[in-house]
Amino acid sequence: MDFVDWGPKLFNALLAVAVFGAVVGLLLLVVDRAPKRGHDRYQLAVFLLPAVVLLAVGLLIPAIRTTILSFTNAAGDFVGLDNYKWLFTEDEALITIRNTIIWTVLTPILATGIGLIYAIVIDKARTEAISKTLVFMPMAISFVGAGIIWKFMYAYRGGGNEQIGLINQFIVWFGGEPKQLLLDPPLNTFLLLIVMVWIQAGFAMVVLSAAIKGIPADIVEAARIDGVNPWSMFWQVTLPSIRGAVIVVLSTITIAVLKVFDIVRTMTGGNFDTSVIANEMYTQAFRFREPGRGAALALLLFVLVIPLVLYQIRVLRQREETR
Amino acid sequence: MSSTVAATATQTPPVAVTEPMANRVKKRLTSRTASIISLLIAVIWTIPTFGLLLSSFRPEREIKTTGWWTAFTNPSFTLENYETVLFGTSSTQLASYFINSIVIAVPATIFTLTLAAMAAYALAWIDFKGRSWVFIGIFALQIVPLQMALIPLLQLFSNGAHIGSITIVPDFNLTGTFVTVWIAHAAFGLPLGTFLLHNFISEIPREMVEAARVDGAGHGAIFRKLMLPLITPALASFGIFEFLWVWNDLLVALTFTGGTKDVAPLTVRLAEMAGSRGDRWERLTAGAFVSLIVPLIVFLSLQKYFVRGLLAGGLKG
Fold first, then answer.
1. Where are the transmembrane segments (chain A) (predicted)?
2. How far apart are CA A2 and CA B182, in angstroms?
């Protein structure tokens, strides 16, 4: 264990935080003693300017430059719509788009469905708290960690050897032939998106569970006294009452799925026909040195996300108005 | 609420004896189905993590040749994998990446939190022309996926900024330092942070702020003495969120650290190991748990705040 290179690093980080804290603290003290003329302007500058500058330099200007970049080639020459033509005609790019469609259609529905079922069956159960924690836990760990956990589930050993991955062991137990699960398109894309379902179901469960608890008790009571069975209770009482929450969860997970990068990168690196837009963006821009194509992919991602976020804002605003 | 339901159920007079009996049987059946479904999902959701955790304590030879479930009938455990990963030779150990993760995540969270809180305060309590436009602008930036910023931001860090031959931002030689990662994370975290904290800060009663102003307090004093204590719960919620997000991030770290041992965090190293040494399970299993332990502790001890942050509308990415 070489402490030699830890010390300075930790010290530098501490120093950075200390200097930052001292500067901010000093500014907050000094700003109240600013000259009377232009007092307000000084105050505004101290409070707002750092964030605005950082956002402009770190997000706004880069986003505009990415848009411009998407019309240039690797050498920086203007090439019109060539990158977009590549995006919608070349096989490698089309597979990426196909996979992204599979991910965005299946993952939100599966995660939300499972999360909803789970939220209902554990509602008011004695073990509700611990049951929630178990399913919610994957939310806390990194996509990289989740990728490794599931790569181990899918592990394969050839040559008639004993299996070390649980999924292949199940295949063997049921009399099947074990195989290199992650190398086998299009199955592998489904196996990768299961990891995302595993992570996001906990999120869906927590939000929907809170929504279910918000259903007025008298409605549930009335239905129960009418002798409504659990099945129609779900379709006629529960689901209509939490419709808004379900839609927010679906769209939130869809946005997360569109941006999914780490899982694909960790488990297959985007090889074997498993790439998705966010992963291909990284690969094109930083591995293949094709920033133009990477930028075009980023822009496609942006365009796909916009309607979902706008929709969410509308739902949020409606909720605020009815509050 | 459950007790009232139970009470009405037992108080129902037995008018038609067969009806409630059938109902009761049905109810017991449904509750049994519910238990089975919940148990099934809970088991499926826990097994993958459990399998990896168990494996991380098994000897290298056994991990590679037998399934972890055989450890129940043929137990054999060791701490060797953790020794290798934590204290081993420099090529196998993850200790310096662990330190890098801390050095990235803690300052990045503090910077984002501070700047977001100050901006949120200004947008809520300092009057100026165009205030609502600035707020809408920051809010709208939440839409921009960070993928949109990566390429130009990396270029800025490595080349500086120029228009023609005029240098606007000189090349500070920041590539591959923690500073770039901090700046990137702070910029990407600000829109959500400002928005969430603004929701909270703007709901502080106007009379409190006005009373402080009448007493002659400036915005600096109000922010320090009045706001900070009041918004601590909101700061905790967003802080945990941001910390977990930065700790778990791969994309930003991969882009700006270049993957060297000096600055790369655990996620980058683990993703690399999973790719190039995909069969070194003795290191991957223990390594994965070293990286999971911090978010799990944060999550389990502060679950309440984390859930509150989620419900407030935050799922960043």
1. 12-32, 44-64, 101-122, 134-153, 190-212, 233-258, 295-313
2. 25
